[in-house]
Amino acid sequence: MIIAGNWKMNTTPSDAGSLALTIAAADAVGPFTRNGGVVVICPPYLSVPVVAARLQPTSVLVGGQNCHWEAAGAFTGEVSASMLADVGCRYVILGHSERRRDQLEDDHMIGLKAVAAIGAGLTPIICVGESLAEREAGVTVDVVTQQIDGVVAAAGADTIRRSILAYEPIWAIGTGLAATPQQAQEVHAAVRSHCRSRHGIDVPILYGGSVTDQNADELFAQADVNGALVGGASLKAAAFNEIIRAATPHV
Ligand code: PEP
After folding, report:
1. CA of 27: how far to CAs of 30, 128, 222, 243, in Å?
2. Contact 44, 64 (CB under 8 A)
3. Which residue has a Cα nearest atom 6 of ligand 1?
4. Which residue in 129, 180, 121 sits closest to 151, CA to CA?
5. In this predicted model, what pLDDT tens digit does every residue of 166-181 receive, in sequence order?
6. Which fold does the domain 2-250 belong to in CATH?
7. Domains of the chain by residue range
8. CB-count burial class (<10 Å; 0-12, 13-18, 19+) for 62
9. pTM of the predicted model, to two decimals?
């Protein structure tokens, strides 16, 4: 099980370190990580160094929220995978729906970013998910598997074999309206089967979208849910701790 916290554009470098330490010191973290569970916190770029320094003696790992596909060069405002690795990141979220929407990232770009991330020693957490209109039209699995195919086409199956997928229905992100455990399981099972049969890969699949301490138990009880990508609740140490506790029996 992998529990990743996406802090998005929240926390300043002045307050990120203490939130990270509070999360790492919470009582569910030790039993979870000692038994093989992985906890990752993904702060904004500027807070990564302070969070990485504070978490270095703990079992909680650090990730970025994005990276560029090139290693260096004339890309104003961008950050490379090797820069993230150099300041202590082990993971990087790629293709979050907010970036697909606001930065117009597409599957090809996300695949190239995954290659760069693997090259820098990072594990990509690649996000896919459908809009509400797509779910209502009954094309959820088509949309999600097409996104995966597009990423694999750009990155190659070997890169995605070393990655993690996160199924994040867009309508569930930040809305308080999580997918039901059955909806999540249905898509996760379809994604797993597609990845195996089409690409010969079997990777962990996280669920993301309004995961809280109230619904984590039931989501984690689903056979194909291998953890969560948590936004809002990862900024609340007590709620994040309860989510980790809910994942512990499934490590
Ligand atoms: C996310 O940002 O990836 C996310 C799932 O957010 P939230 O948990 O707030 O819905």
Report:
1. 6, 31, 24, 12
2. no
3. 231
4. 129
5. 999 999 999 999 999 9
6. TIM Barrel (3.20.20)
7. 2-250
8. buried
9. 0.98
